[in-house]
Structure formats: structure tokens, C-alpha cells
Amino acid sequence: MRLGVLFSGGKDSTLALHLAAEKEDVVCLITVISKNEESYMFHTPNIDLTTLQAQALSLPLVSAITAGRKEEELADLEKAIVDAKSKFQIDGVVTGAVESVYQASRVQRICNRLDVWCFNPLWKYDQKSLLETIVRRRFNVIISGIFAYPLDEKWLGKQIDAQVIDRLVGLQGQYGISPSGEGGEIETTVLDAPMFKQRIEIIDHAVEAKGNSGVYIIKQARLVGK
Amino acid sequence: MILVVDMNWTKNSLAFNEFVSPIVSAIKPFDKYDVKHFSEITPADLDACNKVVLSGTALKDHTTLTQIGRFNWVRTFDKSLLGICAGMQTISRAFGTPLTTCLQIGMAEISTLKENPLFKGNFKAYTLHNFSVKSSQTFETLAESTKCIQAIKHKQKDIYGVLFHPEVRNQEIIQRFIKLI
């Protein structure tokens, strides 16, 4: 089966890509770049980095820009999938949805309209196990957004490792935050993973943070050999 | 021991994590389990288990409905059986009950029509289906959505079907099933 992966450049869509590639033929990445910071579906820091990540993965990228108004961005996603279907003859779409019925059901409806398969290989994945899986598989993932108490700017740019997982799981017990950021508490950016043929090196970045909300913006990056 | 049957189009498919693993996660804290693909079920597997759960499948996957002969065992099975989504559709077809088109994707309001040990009242559940079942002499309707039948029980046997996916937002239904005596 030829598949396109909905790709944000974060840990979930990158892990979904790896799981899909173990079973089927991933032929392209599909990215929707939302200009709306409040987007429920697509907004994530460093979404523009997906171009470089796609190069690192040696996979073609189908991207669409959306103004990000609620249901309008779904129409833009649909157009991107139509585009991927016509350019790369995809039979199906893969998402990194874990718990969000809101996201998963909207993508399922689009896939049903377009008569393509929809796969969610991380669906209901235990959150701590998900983080442990990315570490075990040697993903280099940094925290690129924090959006919940008691997270602060000290978390931004941190690589997810066993120690960070322990701290996040601890915060789940104390404050009820989701350790893998299912409630939008954290956003992540992947700099390297087994399928990356080259890794991403950050040359310049900026931290924009206020209280318990902040982002780690990658201003300049390049590909380097592994 | 609970036998979980993988109803996806092939063994070890990309849909396994989505439709089989969450059922296993719901069972794991309460009982032992084994997982088999529907193409590999043997009489020994059915003898060895106490109950069977048939998984759902991706929306475009209707493979089990084209291989109903592989489910002849359902008609003579004398233990508790729960079919989820494609599992319910397959159970119905195994007994000769026809399907009817009914597309639902996302959270839906489910209304209980008949008292039963798995659920009661009105509740929300995750749906992902193209077909429901027609009402029949063989099954009683336990629940419905505004669009179609959502749960059935065989009139004589401990055979249940739910069209919605309890493993997503209503895991307690699976747990009540595995605790049925």
C-alpha cells in the first residue's frame, strides 16, 4: 500500500512514519502549515522545518498553507491529500493521533470522502511508553513548545531522554499534565531518527517565553551527515 | 483466558495497533489473553479460551465480510463472544443477518433500549463504521444511535455485538464483558 504520512515534524508524526514504513510503502509526507497559533489541528512550533526534515528523510513533501480558521483548515488538509493522491498515487494516509477523537475523526471523514485508507498506529498508545519508545529508538527530540503550569522556559530546547521522561511523568502525578503533551502541554521537534539519512543541526534559535507558555524557534538549521 | 481475534485484512497489519492493541490494554489488568488473526483460529484456540472478542477494522477494510466461511465456528460457539464493529457485522453475517448502510465517524450518542449487563442509559461512544445490521429474528437490539442499531445480543446465546468502539472511550464495557459469568 502506498501511504502519505501527515507530518508536523514532531515526535508523534515521526514515530507514526517509522511504524508505517515498517509495514507499508511510505511515498510522501503531507504537511499543513497553519497561520493560526490557536489551531486545534495543525499548529506547532517550527512547522517550517518540515521542509528540511523531509530532505533529511529523502521523502517528497506535499505542503499546504492554511489561514487556520476552524473547519476551513480541514478543507485545506483535504486539498493537500487530494494533491498527494494525484502526485504520488497514495492509497492511504497515516496520522500520529494518540488520544484526540477530535483530530482522528476529522481525518477519518476526509479519508472516507476521498476513498483512501486512514491509519493511526499510535492510537491509544500509553503516553509514558510512547516517550520511552522514541528514546529506545534513538530519536533526537527536543521540546519546542511549553503551554502549561508548571512548565517554564527552562524546558525549552531540552532533549527528551530518560531523565526528562521521569520528570514529565512526575508532573503528571502532581499537576495532571499529559507527559507526552496530549493536552497540548508540550510540543516537540525531531532533529534525528533512524529513518533520517542526515541529522538536523541547529545553527541559530530564539526562545520566546512568558510564564508557563513559550516556544523554541529554530531560526536557522542545516543537514549534517550521520 | 480471553481470545482476542485480530479482524484486520492481514496478520501484523498497520491497523493492529489501532484496533487490536487497545482491546488488549483494556483486558490486560483483569485477565489473561491471547491474540490470533482470524485466519489462524483453530478449534484448540476456541477450546482453550473462556471468552472471545472480535476486533474492529479500518473503515475501508471489509475482508472478514468477504470470508464469512471462516466464521462458521461462531454459530456453534457456546461461550461468551463480543464482536466490535467489523466483529459485530461479521457475527451478524455468520448467522445470516443482513447488513445495512450506515456511515458514522466520531463521537455519537448511544441509547440503551434493553437492559443488559454491559451498559445502561444514554452514553457517548466513538463510532467508525460504514454498515450496521438489520433487525432480525436471531438478535435482539440492545442499543441504537440516531442513525442505526449500535448493539445486539443473540436471543439464545451469550453472543454480543457493539458497533461503536468501546476500547476508545468506554473500556468499562469490555471489562464488564470479560467479568460476565
Please describe the topology of this protein.
The complex is a heterodimer of chains A (226) and B (181).
Chain A: E1 2-6, H1 11-23, E2 25-34, H2 50-57, E3 61-66, H3 72-88, E4 92-94, H4 101-114, E5 117-119, H5 127-136, E6 140-147, H6 162-175, E7 186-192, E8 199-210, E9 213-224
Chain B: E1 2-6, H1 16-19, H2 21-27, E2 33-37, H3 43-48, E3 51-54, H4 73-76, E4 80-84, H5 86-94, E5 99-112, E6 122-133, E7 139-144, E8 149-154, E9 159-162, H6 166-169, H7 171-179
Parallel strand pairs in B: 1-2, 1-3, 3-4, 4-9
Antiparallel strand pairs in B: 5-6, 5-7, 7-8, 8-9
Overall description:
Chain A is of the alpha/beta class. Chain A folds into two domains: 2-119, HUPs (Rossmann fold, 3-Layer(aba) Sandwich), CATH 3.40.50.620; 131-224, Alpha-Beta Complex (putative n-type atp pyrophosphatase, domain 2), CATH 3.90.1490. Chain A contains six helices and nine strands. In chain A, the strands form two sheets. Chain A has a five-stranded parallel β-sheet, with helices on both faces. In chain A, strands 7-6-9-8 form a four-stranded antiparallel β-sheet, with helices on one face. In chain A, strand 1, helix 1 and strand 2 (25-34) form a beta-alpha-beta unit. In chain A, helix 3 crosses helix 4 (101-114). Chain A is globular, with a radius of gyration of 17 Å. Chain B is of the alpha/beta class. Chain B has a single domain, classed as 3-Layer(aba) Sandwich (Rossmann fold). Chain B has seven helices and nine strands; from the N terminus they run E-H-H-E-H-E-H-E-H-E-E-E-E-E-H-H. Chain B has helices at residues 16-19, 21-27, 43-48, 73-76, 86-94, 166-169, 171-179; strands at residues 2-6, 33-37, 51-54, 80-84, 99-112, 122-133, 139-144, 149-154, 159-162. A nine-stranded mixed β-sheet of chain B has the order 2-1-3-4-9-8-7-5-6, with helices on both faces. In chain B, a hairpin with a 4-residue loop joins strand 8 and strand 9 (159-162). Chain B is globular and about 40 Å long. The chains are: A alpha/beta (226), B alpha/beta (181). Chains A and B meet through helix 1, helix 4 and strand 5 of A and helix 2, strand 5 and helix 6 of B.
